[in-house]
Prior knowledge:
By secondary structure, the chain is mainly alpha-helical. It has one domain (35-333): Orthogonal Bundle (Peroxidase, domain 1). It contains 14 helices and eight strands. It has helices at 2-18, 39-51, 60-73, 78-82, 94-97, 99-102, 111-125, 129-142, 175-184, 189-195, 226-230, 259-266, 271-276, 281-295, and strands spanning 25-26, 32-33, 153-154, 203-204, 214-215, 247-248, 257-258, 306-307. It has a two-stranded antiparallel sheet with strand order 1-2. Strand 6 (247-248) and strand 7 (257-258) form a beta hairpin. The N and C termini lie far apart (47 Å).
Amino acid sequence: xxxxxxxxxxxxxxxxxxxxxxxxxxxxQGRLAKxxxxxxxxxxxxxxxxxxxxxxxxxxxxxxxLRLTFxxxxxxxxxxxxxxxxxxxxxxxxxxxxAEIETNFHANxxxxxxxxxxxxxxIKHGVSFGDFIQFAGAVGVSxxxxxxxxxxxxxxxxxxxxxxxxxxxxxxDATNTIFARMGDAGFSPNEVVDLLVSHTxxxxxxxxPTIPGTPFDSTPSTFDAQFFVETLLTGDLFPGNGSNVGxxxxxxxxxxxxxxxxxxxxxxxxxxxxxxxxxxxxxxxxKFTAAMAKLAILGHSARELVDCSEVIPVxxxxxxxxxxxxxxxxxxxxxxxxxxxxxxxxSTQPGPAxxxxxxxxx
Length: 362
């Protein structure tokens, strides 16, 4: 009972943080904001929904925009700050301001495309790169069925310095290395899992460039828990050349499995957090929302920013809130690793096993 109460309080706290105060400004098309400084973001919203996200779809540009929020923000080190050293500015837009430097880091392979796609919008509307990157990620994921309504705080400066290399974890890194790097940015191992909820709407293009657009789960346009059950499955089928570092065999044709996801799902420190999302969609969304709120202000103080969360669209609710086994799979195919909690009972999708379709390019 106490555990359930704690979870309820977490969910309520997250909801309260995103709930707008009474509006005090009338913006374009009669839309309301609690602060006049937020009005311009409605215009940015209209522009990117039409011209970046193809009319509000949850496709490749959304996946890449969400990825970019992480790659920009994680260039931050608490230990460097304590030692008085420059450890990167966090969510400051440096990956866009210094694209010629940061997009050449190995871990940032491929983000140059979304950086250049987003840059004209930020310049056109006169907003900082740091603000725009976080806004585009929040708007984009709101287009995904069952997705979160992320908090959005505006007011980051457009002054930044390049983030140092080797601050973005890679899928080939050992789990201990990932946890140490993320811990230096202020995230616990369970919060790493919470951030990996983003992989419910994700695909790869560059870990194995021979199969671009390969999704991490069978429902890459739906914000659901299929990623968390499918990553736990055993299997020996993989539609790639199998030679690239960071790849692990996937049990489903057309699906990609990152080495880091595979190992974190089975690590004793994080297995129970991973498993907890299989039957609790609301918990998954709440944990992701809280982790993203923390990520989005790395290097900043929330007190110095303006809460414009009311501009972020309200996502459509998920039709299904419990994960299920893909056709032909069952509990016998699961490599369960959470020892504290029994594996939940899940249904199996009907029909013969099918291939997972690639995410089409924008």
